[in-house]
Write a structure and sequence with these properties.
Length: about 525
């Protein structure tokens, strides 16, 4: 990855002032370590008339794979070959943007103790990036850089192969910018727009990226005609963060229009903030109920079956008593999002050793899932077609056979309390069914009796006296010493009859408890 910054000068203002502004001496080549390789800064030319600073980033492909894909941790969902053979070491991207912010940190802030007036004054600049991905082509490059004060914006496409022009152009361009701008402004624009044009980032976009965007976009982003596209792409199309950034940019625009500070515009006071407690979301109550059940069971090695985007795995990691956590989901995309949520690519080795993300179907037996203290199926069973539910029962209770199994599912009776939910509709479009309390207890009781478990039921959320809680939870505890019995990895599990034929109600503690069994035996 390569980028050059050039300027011209006069005897009164020599071009070598660029070295002061960048805080890098023109007579020395310097090397800096980054998280994904090594950055070099050197000056191909340095005279009073003309000075050029070059940034060369050597990306370590092995480090890039290890940080992005190692042990199933995060990273883009590339194919097995693409994680090793890709354009990341060569084409300007968020890797180069991070190197800019690392190597030219003071210059980005416009700080120069030696020449403070020079740092705050526009200067003639020419910036060249030989290879830059541009999803949107030359036209989008012009739309992004054109309104920012550059007198020349060129982005000719790079041919796939100069010896074979009939092959056409690649998706890469050669960027050339010329104009009189403050150096700090030019660097900030590159810091934001390089990953925007690439339309990808090599790291998880956390909420603090909004602050980074607003700092780098100060003075130009609030009025940019392509503000929405820039914001959305920079934040990896995370809608919540994009909306937050757009709202804050609108405050900046209004403040600049009225010549006021942002704090003077955004001065509304929530008079209820100190007097009204915010209701705890049901999802958070559900996670806390599951965690409490796991703690009560004394579990330390836990399976999160159907882990989705990793919210429960994240909560488990915060408690050191859970020494091994395995998240399993059939969706590669969900596992990728979970890896980003957990920041696995930046996690320390000791913490990373506690968590594993696996792709797998819960209706197939899997030897990897045997021998654990507990398994959690939180809001999972209702996504399984009823005819396939016995296969899930067999895979979890018969083959994996953990000491404790925790199952949560919606209580359909409570749906009448959701004002926004039309009558007769399920809570989520992918739900194959939603059970009443009687139906859930009947199913759980039959599974417990058949597989050698006791079961107790716990309400989650407000327990309405008429319709019960919004979420119902069953905690299964194994009552025999039977070991797990794998029936062959990758084989769809067999099981008993469907729950539709079960009508017998179940009590809070099912008769499959060991005490009840002993009474029967006597």
């Amino acid at each position: 990855m390569f980028l050059t910054i050039s300027t011209t000068g006069t005897p009164e203002r020599p071009a070598t002032d660029l070295g002061f502004l960048l805080h890098k001496h023109p007579d020395r080549a310097q090397t800096f370590s980054t998280s994904h390789g090594t950055a070099h800064v050197f000056y191909p030319e340095a005279s009073a008339d003309r000075c050029t600073a070059a940034l060369l980033l050597e990306v370590d492909p092995v480090a890039l794979v290890r940080r992005g894909k190692g042990k199933g941790r995060g990273g883009a969902p590339d194919t097995a070959l693409a994680q090793y053979v890709n354009d990341r070491p060569y084409a300007a991207s968020s890797l180069l943007a991070v190197a800019l912010s690392t190597v030219f940190k003071s210059a980005l802030r416009g700080v120069c103790a030696a020449l403070p007036e020079r740092a705050g004054t526009p200067m003639p600049l020419r910036i060249e990036v030989p290879a830059m991905p541009a999803r949107g082509g030359e036209e989008l490059v012009g739309k992004l850089f054109g309104p920012l004060g550059w007198t020349l914006v060129e982005a000719p496409p790079v041919p796939l192969d100069e010896q074979f022009p009939e092959w056409g152009a690649s998706r890469y361009v050669r960027l050339v910018l010329e104009g009189e701008l403050r150096l700090a402004d030019a660097l900030r624009q590159l810091y934001v727009l390089l990953p925007v044009l690439d339309d990808a980032k090599h790291y998880w976009v956390a909420p603090d990226e909004v602050d980074k965007l607003l700092r780098a976009g100060e003075g130009w982003l609030a009025e940019h005609p392509e503000q929405k596209l820039i914001t959305s792409r920079y934040l990896s199309r995370r809608w919540g963060l994009t909306r937050q950034a757009m709202e804050r940019l609108e405050l900046v625009r209004l403040a600049e229009t009225d010549d006021l500070g942002v704090e003077d515009v955004d001065n509304a006071v929530d008079e209820t903030a100190d007097t009204e407690a915010r209701p705890v979301p049901l999802a958070e109550q559900r996670r806390e109920a599951v965690l409490e059940a796991l703690r009560t069971a004394g579990a330390s090695r836990v399976l999160d079956l159907g882990c989705g985007q990793g919210q429960l795995v994240q909560a488990l990691l915060k408690d050191v008593r859970f020494t091994e956590i395995v998240g399993v989901d059939v969706s590669v995309r969900a596992l990728t999002i979970a890896g980003r949520r957990l920041k696995l690519d930046r996690m320390g080795e000791r913490q990373a050793a506690r968590v594993t993300l696996l792709q797998g179907s819960l209706t197939y037996t899997d030897k990897r899932l045997t021998g654990y203290d507990a398994a959690v199926l939180s809001e999972v069973i209702e996504h399984v077609d009823l005819p396939r539910l016995p296969a899930l029962e067999y895979a979890v209770f018969r083959t994996a056979r953990p000491a404790t199994v925790i199952v949560t599912t919606p209580n359909v009776e409570y749906n009448v309390r959701w004002e926004s939910l039309p009558a007769g509709h399920v809570r989520h479009g992918d739900h194959r069914f939603e059970w009443t309390r009687r139906e859930f207890r009947t199913w759980a009781g039959d599974v417990a009796e058949r597989e050698g478990y006791g079961v107790r039921f716990v309400p989650v959320g407000p327990d309405d006296p008429e319709v019960g809680p919004p979420t119902q939870m069953a905690v299964f505890t194994r009552t025999d010493a039977q070991e797990s019995r794998p029936e062959g990895e990758g084989t769809e599990a067999a099981g008993g009859g469907g729950p539709g034929a079960r009508t017998r109600p179940a009590a809070d503690t099912h008769p499959a408890d060991s005490s009840e069994k002993e009474a029967k035996a006597a």
